[in-house]
Amino acid sequence: MRHLVKLEFRKNSFRGVLWTAGIAVLAILGFTLLLASDAEGLGSYEEAITVMGMLVRVTFVVHASVLLSRLIVDEYRNRTITVLFTYPINRKKLLLAKLLLVGAMTFALVIVCDLLVVAGFYLFNEKIQYFPELPAADVWRKQAILLVVNAAACAGMSLIPLFFGMIKKSVPTTIVSSILIVALLNSSNNGETLGSNVSVSIAFGVVGVLVALLAIRNVERADL
Questions:
Q1: Contact assessment for residue 211 and residue 159, using Cβ atoms and an 8 Å cutoff
Q2: Of 64, 114, 163, 208, whose Cβ has the fewest other Cβ atoms within 10 Å?
């Protein structure tokens, strides 16, 4: 399976992913700095970290839907995936390799980009002093744990749009469904969001994995 994932990675050019990640880091950092410059924008350094993490997760859950559209949905729609299915490899394993690649990339991008944005905010804060007092060590430890857990949850929930995209074999449906998912998770209700609850994020991640497995299970019966 690891060999299949490597082959899938080499077969596709992911240079655009690096550009997307770089632009996302700059945009999220700039937006957070703008909020921090407003006296009523952010209340604390910890809140700034939370906002940055939320924006990173939203960005790369939607980005994962673009990858799913490119690697799976679009190939089904154009019937180019039938060429892959002529290879002497189980089609379920081929699809699983694609899903593992998307999940792994989403996990890595959330981790790396979140760290870059937080590091950038730290450097700017040292110069401009939006928040003179840094968070305590236990706050940083808590945020580090949340980062890993939320990244894993994002890797799972990023697969949910595949279900909707494969129903109609539609790229727009795949992307729009990811936007609706992140909108649902981050819609505010009295200052609280579903996404701020780690248990809810994990639940969505588990649902995403189950949806992906169900899609793979139905592949052999799919009408290509």
A1: yes
A2: 163
Rounded to 5 degrees, φ, ψ at 189 are -135, 100
Write a three-state SS string for 46-69. Answer: HHHHHHHHHHHHHHHHHHHHHHHH
Residue 52 structure tokens: 């940055």
Q: Is 86 exposed, middle or buried (0-12, 13-18, 19+ CB in 10 A)?
A: exposed
Closest CA to 17 of 97, 127, 109, 140: 109
Locate 96 and state its tokens: 């699983």
- Tens of pLDDT, residue by residue over 122-149, are 999 888 888 888 888 898 999 999 999 9
In this structure, are residues 205 and 158 in contact, taking their beta carbons and an 8 Å threshold?
A: no
Higher local confidence (pLDDT), 195 or 209: 209
CA distance 157 to 59: 13
Q: Contacts for 90-93 with beta carbons within 8 Å, 24 or more apart?
A: 91/219, 91/220, 92/216, 92/217, 92/219, 92/220, 93/1, 93/4
Cα dihedral 171, 103, 27, 185 sign:
positive
CA 30 to chain CA centroid, Å, is 20
